[in-house]
Design a protein that fits this description.
The complex is a heterodimer. By secondary structure, chain A is of the alpha+beta class. Chain A has 3 helices and 7 strands, in the order E-H-H-E-E-E-E-E-E-H. Chain B is 62% helix and 14% strand. In chain B, helix 2 packs across helix 4. The longest helix of chain B has 28 residues. Chain B starts with a helix and ends with a helix. Classes of the chains: A alpha+beta, B alpha+beta.
Chain lengths: 155, 97
């Protein structure tokens, strides 16, 4: 797993125009992403709303639409709140780091290939809190072993 | 945070510190062609990223590694990745209806 980005590839048995609509029509996007958006996506404008995913209804959605290239690329940047936990959540994202989300579409024999990339995680400071979720406890983590191995190989 | 690690010298410092004890700047500078000042600068970057902590013992600064931030960021990335898996599954169900 890369430390800077997440990439997902998914084959969809639907025409590219259908997938494009599901991504860029704000009501359709809201349906599968589980967010209630206040208005359409417009390049260069901030999209606002709030999450409808159970347990996260207190979380505000705020994304700056970057690119919309018909049936090819849809992208936006968004901030990661320090905590999603209701007790410590803050809707002020002004100082939080942002990542770039890109949806790329390609026509295939069976329909559409969607490639989702979220990048920019290297900027994330070490204070993301995940109280509500499982955490690795104590001791050595795989990552530290990787650092040690990498350095051992290169000295 | 990983940007702080993206440097050969800092990776070497972290590897030394990973052994688990506290180290002085002298100990960390030993065997390096870099000056004390340069090593200190790198240590401060690591400190800023939260993976190294310093304390004072008399006139010396001592440094120690904290694995928690790395573990937390990896866990966060895993969480985000899982959320995307779920969301894309719902997108697939919607468009393939």
């Amino acid at each position: 797993m890369s430390t800077d980005r997440i990439e997902k590839r998914i084959e969809l048995k639907a025409p590219i125009s259908r997938v494009w609509r599901a991504l860029t029509d704000y009501k359709e996007f809201g349906e599968w992403f589980r967010v209630k958006l206040e208005g359409p996506f417009v390049v260069g404008q901030i999209s606002t709303g709030h999450i409808t995913y159970p347990g996260y209804e207190h979380v505000r959605w705020e994304a700056m639409v970057q690119r919309m290239e018909q049936e090819r690329l849809f992208s936006f940047t968004w901030a990661h709140p320090k905590s999603f936990d209701k007790a410590s959540y803050s809707p002020d994202y002004s100082k939080e780091p942002t990542t770039l989300v890109e949806f790329r579409l390609e026509k295939t024999a069976t329909g559409t290939l969607l490639v989702l990339t979220e990048s920019g995680f290297d900027k994330l400071p070490a204070d993301r809190r995940l109280e509500a979720f499982r955490r690795n406890e104590g001791g050595w983590t795989e990552q530290m072993k990787n650092i040690e191995n990498h350095v051992a190989k290169n000295t | 945070m990983f940007a702080a690690l993206g440097d050969e010298t800092r990776l070497l410092l972290v590897a030394k510190l990973c052994a688990g004890q506290t180290y002085s700047i002298s100990q960390l500078t030993r065997g390096s062609r870099l000056s004390r000042q340069a090593i200190t600068k790198h240590l401060r970057v690591l400190e800023g990223a939260g993976i190294v902590h310093s304390s004072r013992a008399g006139r010396e600064s001592l440094f120690e590694f904290d694995p928690e931030p790395i573990a937390e960021v990896r866990e966060y990335l895993r969480f985000v990745s899982e959320q995307w898996d779920e969301a894309l599954g719902r997108l697939k169900a919607l468009v393939e209806r």
